C-alpha cells in the first residue's frame, strides 16, 4: 500500500502520455512555432538551464565568501585590478568572478567597472551563521560530486565523518569535534529559534528541556522572551563546556540546568512540562526517532508538550528547499532523512502523543514546527 506521501500505481501512470509527447524532439520543434508554445519552451529552457548551472552559482557564492569579498565590498565598490592582486587572483579572473556575482544579484556593477555589494549580498552577511554554512558546504558538495554513488550508499561520505554523533559514536567523540558541531549549529540556530518562537507560544510553560540543544541557542532565546521560564539543556557531555560558556555570556546560566547524556543511552530527565527537539529528528533514522519519541513521552508529565522544529519535506507537495537541499544533506550524513510533517505526526501518534498541531511555518527553508501533547491520565501508553 502506498504511504500518505507516495501516490499509488494508478496515480503514477496519470499524465504519462503527455510527458512522452513532450519528450519527442519533433513535437518540441512544432511547439516552438506556436505563439504560446514559444513562450513555454523559452520558460522551460531557462528553468532547466538554471537547474543545470545551479552548482556553479553555489560555487561562485562560495568563492566570494572564501575570499572575503562580501566583507571587503561593505566599505565601497572596488575594481577587479585592485581586488585581484589582494587575493592572489589574476585581474581577468577576478573580473569573471565579480561579473558572475553581479549576474546572481549579489553584487552591483558600476559604470566605471567597479563592483559593489548589493542588498542581497549584504543580507548574506546579516544572517547569523550563513557564511559559516556556505564554507561548511564544501564537504557536502564533495559528497554530491557523484550523486548516484551517494544514492547507492557506495562510499563513506565526508559529511558522515564530520557528524560522527549521528552514527551513535558518543563515548569517544573528541571534545573538539563536539565543539565544532555545536559552534556551527549555534551560528545557524538563531534564525531557527526566532521562527520557532514566533510560531509557538511558551506562556504556559514553566520548565523547558531542550534535547540535543548544543550551545543552548534555542533555550537562551526562549528564556530571554519569557522571564519566568527555567530551562534544562540535555546533550552530549562534550558539548556542555560550550553551552555553559554561552549561557554564562548571555547571563542565563543561573536559569538553566545542564544535563549531560546521550538520548541513545540515557533516560531523559523528568521535571520539564515542555520538551523541544530542534533540528534533531532529521539527523536520525526511524528506529532512533521512535526510541527518542518514546523517551520524550516518558519524561513529560500528563499534558506536557513536545515541540518539534526542523526543515520538513513538502510530502505530497514537494518543496524546493527541503526536498532538494535538506533531503540530500541529511542523506550524506549517513542516517538522516527529511520527513514530511504528516510523517512526523504519524510517528508522534505511534509513540502515544495526542493533540498534534501544525505544521506551522513562516519560512520552510528555515524550519517548520509541530506541537504534540502527552495524554492526560491513564490514556498515555508508556
Automatic annotation (TrEMBL):
Residues 141-353 form the O-methyltransferase C-terminal domain. PROSITE patterns: SAM_OMT_II. Coiled coil: none annotated. Keywords: Methyltransferase, S-adenosyl-L-methionine, Transferase. It comes from the Bacteria. InterPro entries: COMT-like, COMT_C, COMT_dimerisation, SAM-dependent_MTases_sf, WH-like_DNA-bd_sf, WH_DNA-bd_sf. GO terms for biological process: methylation. Residues 50-118 form the O-methyltransferase dimerisation domain. GO terms for molecular function: O-methyltransferase activity; protein dimerization activity. Pfam families: Dimerisation, Methyltransf_2. PANTHER family: O-METHYLTRANSFERASE CICE, PUTATIVE (AFU_ORTHOLOGUE AFUA_4G14580)-RELATED. This is Hydroxyneurosporene methyltransferase.
